[in-house]
Amino acid sequence: MLRIVMITLLFALSGPLWANLAPPPVQYDVLSPNGEWVLKANRHEAEQRICRAGSEKTEWSFSIEAPGEQTFYLSKDGATVAIVGPWWFKTDAKPTAAVRLMRRSGIFAEFEHDTLCPKMVKSKNNPGWLWRSEQSNNTLIIKAQDGTLSRISLETGKLLGQETFEIPADSGYCTTSPALS
After folding, report:
1. pTM of the predicted protein model
2. Which own/partner pairs from 55-62 qualify as long-range (CB within 8 Å, at least 24 positions apart)?
3. Which of 67, 93, 116, 162 has the maximum number of C-beta atoms within 10 A of its C-beta?
4. What angle do CA 17, 20, 21 make, to 5 degrees?
5. Beta carbons within 10 angstroms of residue 122's beta carbon
6. In what order do the strands lie in the sheet with 58-63?
7. DSSP string of 89-132?
8. Residues 143, 117: contact at Cβ < 8 Å?
9. Whose CA is closest to 136, among 82, 90, 180, 60?
């Protein structure tokens, strides 16, 4: 009897812990930094749409190969979408760029894992390359698991620079889009 009470109590008290494990939404909006443009992201569809804020009219769109594995960022003018991910090394499929910049005309720029995470050895024991990604105005910031911080311009498609940073010792999770963090 005591065992049943203890198990019931354990499950009742652990409820709030399980609440944070909900899957990310299937559809969500990614706003440009100035709020004038919206990427209508859908984790189950290949086609992703860019619209003006407050409108459902598609201004332009692009397709992705493996929906649901990426994180998106949108430039201030809505002209460039940064596609980051997935955060792990894909060893079972054709290698894809770690970061891809898309425009209406197609792929604008690509950055490989070896460029953004140059000190990391790919292995089954070390499957992840991305520690965190974020956006500051029209600059995409990539923080890799090897301690490399890269800044990429969403306007020019150029790598603006790299530096070393220290990953906090208590951090064990990759975080990306504000919509999913």
Report:
1. 0.78
2. 60/104, 62/102, 62/106
3. 116
4. 100
5. 15
6. 27-31, 37-42, 47-52, 58-63
7. ---SS----SEEEEETTEEEEEE-HHHHSTTPPPBTTB-B-EEE
8. no
9. 82
Q: What is the pLDDT of residue 23?
A: 66
- Read off the pLDDT of residues 34-82 as tens digits, 9 standing for 90 and up: 999 999 999 889 999 999 999 999 999 999 877 777 899 999 999 999 9
Average pLDDT of the chain, as a whole number: 81
Q: At 67, is the secondary structure helix, strand, or coil? A: coil
Q: And the tokens for 72?
A: 């998106």
Structure tokens at 56: 């459902």
Strands 27-31 and 37-42: antiparallel
H-helix or E-strand spanning residue 52: strand 47-52
DSSP letter (8 states) at residue 30: E
